[in-house]
Design brief:
The protein has 272 residues and is mainly β. 11% of the residues lie in helices and 38% in strands. The two termini are 26 Å apart. Belongs to the peptidase C40 family.
């Protein structure tokens, strides 16, 4: 089983895995939401970052121990550890942040202090409105930056272009930093399309594109450990450590550059 997608650790496993894994304890899991703007999802307590979760993200808590929670993310099934104090109650979200970023304010005025920076995809519970502001239990958000859950954007490539020049960050899933798969996932989720967290898993999305067939907008190009989103038959966008940022490149030039760097040829071409 893939460690990243298996909701089990040495102490507990989800009830759905009974008969498939050995575990000291099986649990139905406890619903919760991320209660901070951004949190690292770790491989082990105090371990390396695998991915990140953002404000309002739904998770299932599988185990709690010594201040740490082992969780599974609802958006993509990814499992890992975070601190218990980064979790909140599983309140029903109503809206999501549909711009690359926004702020949560103390009051419905631009002069009010910001309480948190929210990134694309963050989920909030709107309880009312005050003019152009949406009220949530934690503060106020510009209503124009939100959409109701289920009201998705339409063009993943355009979403990705909203992150141009965002710094590259291994395992990053926010406007503060993205890696290649984080960019693709953010763009697809914003358009209501399911998407795994890592590029090797994303390589199974859609259908294969025949060798030599023209590329189309929103196709995906894969290298070993890397993914890019096609903007046009000749141009792509990706988060790359080569430039430590989200950049646009000519496809043929990028393929040649990556090959010269010893990172191999394109391995998959996929159409969503």
């Amino acid at each position: 089983m893939d460690r990243r997608l298996t909701p089990a650790n040495a102490r507990a496993a989800l009830e759905s895995l009974r008969g498939q894994v050995d575990a000291t304890r099986f649990t139905p899991g406890e619903p919760a939401r991320i209660a901070v703007p951004l949190v690292d999802l770790l491989r082990d307590p105090e371990g390396a970052r695998d991915r990140q979760l953002i404000w309002g993200a739904a998770v299932t808590v599988i185990d709690r121990h010594a201040g740490w929670a082992f969780v599974q993310s609802a958006r993509d099934g990814y499992c890992g550890y975070l601190r218990e104090d980064q979790l909140g109650a599983a309140e029903q979200a109503t809206h999501w942040v549909a711009t690359p970023g926004t702020h949560l304010y103390a009051g419905p005025k631009v002069q009010q202090p910001e309480r948190a920076a929210l990134t694309l995809g963050a989920q909030v519970t709107v309880t009312g409105h005050s003019g152009a502001w949406a009220e949530t239990p934690q503060g106020f958000v510009p209503a124009g930056h939100l959409r109701p859950l289920g009201d998705w954007l339409e063009d993943p490539a355009a979403v990705a272009q909203g992150f141009l020049h965002t710094p590259y960050l291994w395992g990053g899933n926010s406007r503060a930093g993205l890696d290649c798969s984080g960019l693709v996932q953010a763009a697809l989720l914003a358009c209501g399309r399911a998407c795994p967290g890592d590029s090797d898993l994303q390589a199974a999305l859609g259908t294969a594109i025949a060798e030599g067939a023209p590329l189309q907008r929103n196709d995906l190009l894969f290298w070993k450990g890397h993914v890019a989103l096609v903007l046009s038959p000749t141009r792509m966008i990706h988060a790359t450590a080569a430039y430590m940022a989200v950049v646009e490149e000519e496809i043929e030039m990028a393929i040649a550059r990556i090959l010269r760097a010893g990172e191999g040829p394109v391995t998959h071409r996929r159409r969503l």
